[in-house]
Amino acid sequence: MAKFIINGGNVISGKFAPRGNKNAVLPMLAASVLTDQSIRLGNVPDIQDVRVMLELLENLGVSVEIDGASVTLCAAGLKTTELDKELCRHVRASILLAGPLAAKHGAALIHSPGGDVIGRRRLDTHFYGLRALGIHISDSVPYEFKRVQLAAANLVLDEASVTATENILMAAVLAEGETVIFNAACEPHVQDLATLLVKMGAAISGIGTNRLHVRGVTSLGGAAHAIAPDYIETGSFLAAAAVTGGALEINHPGDALTLSVLEKGFAKLGVNWSLSHASLKMGSETDRRTRPDLGNFTPKIEDGIWPAFPSDLMSVMIVLATQTQGQILFFEKLFESRMYFVDNLMAMGANIIQCDPHRVVVSGASKLHGARLSSPDIRAGMAMLIAACCADGESVIDHVQMIDRGYEAIDERLRALGADIIRA
Prior knowledge:
Blueprint (H helix, E strand, L loop, with lengths): L2 E5 L6 E3 L5 H10 L7 E4 L5 H13 L2 E5 L2 E5 L10 H6 L7 H8 L1 E4 L13 H9 L2 E3 L5 E5 L6 E3 L5 H11 L5 E5 L5 H12 L3 E3 L5 E5 L7 E4 L4 H13 L4 E4 L4 H12 L6 E2 L3 E4 L17 E3 L11 H9 L3 E6 L10 H6 L3 E6 L2 E6 L7 E3 L3 H13 L3 E5 L2 H4 L5 H7 L3 E4 L1
Parallel strand pairs: 2-14, 3-13, 9-10, 17-18, 21-22
Antiparallel strand pairs: 1-22, 1-23, 3-5, 4-5, 6-8, 7-8, 10-12, 11-12, 14-16, 15-16, 18-20, 19-20
Helix pairs in contact: 1-2, 1-7, 4-6, 5-6, 6-7, 8-10, 8-12, 10-12
């Protein structure tokens, strides 16, 4: 197993270019089985989850051509609808093939999906929506999906699940009639998938809202689409620069409205930036303080469904708070195990009170020292890497393949910005 060795204390500063959104590319790869024509995706990140997903598709008979950051897929030669058991275990996005395979090809056999262990991750909403569209699903693993009569439905989801919305949407585009998906997730990556589907010939309205209207079509065609920049990666690198006193310039950072959602959280920790049409600039600041709520009350950062602050950035924001003067409460509402990694930060010297599985209070600024760490999931691993970059002394992070699942060449890109990091 690979590990990172980091000597902390170096300033992370310079120009940074975010890769394509991890959470957008995975469902787009799944969408390739909805058509016999070619799908060309640009700005594809070279990360472990993408590699596993591509291998899953190749095992199904999808042709895959990789040209730098572009991937071309064609499912005209699909030979099976049964997913490889071992590959399913390594990526949660395997479940995203259920809807498009069953809708287009009549069936899918999917073993238990893997992914980060950050709490219970229900499949109930996926099954509710797909069953309502006319797909029979077995109750035991491996899950068998069989198209009975694909037809539109009026759906009210019991939770605004991102992957369930994507799965149901990819099936609904081929269902006869008009489907309404209410309480749909509307995160930027859901919008990006819907945009690709429209380019393929789908009829979808309400993109960006929690009420999607889908008029089914008989077939979809090929398309080319560039994946939007990953705002989670952008937030992670902004935090890394901020905790080390660095400045960061990001060219083509993505949608301004998406970045404004991030800015609300960062501003509470004294991090601000300027945004022009094609550039985001964050200046160097070494005396940041938390911004209290009105009446001088302790501020709070809480996640939730979009456009609330994204859960995937809560871990790195906790590290940022350890290097900010003042006190702040973090309230993780979506995953009951997301906060467990804070024990590692406390061992490094952070002043953190864990109130319960969902809430921690951070008092900063704390002087962190190097430690031996292990990456439990993608986002906690990135958070500990950021903590190691600003800590005194050497840190070693084991199981870095977890970080590689979501961040392309993270060690090389941080090193280019000034970090002292090697992979061993």
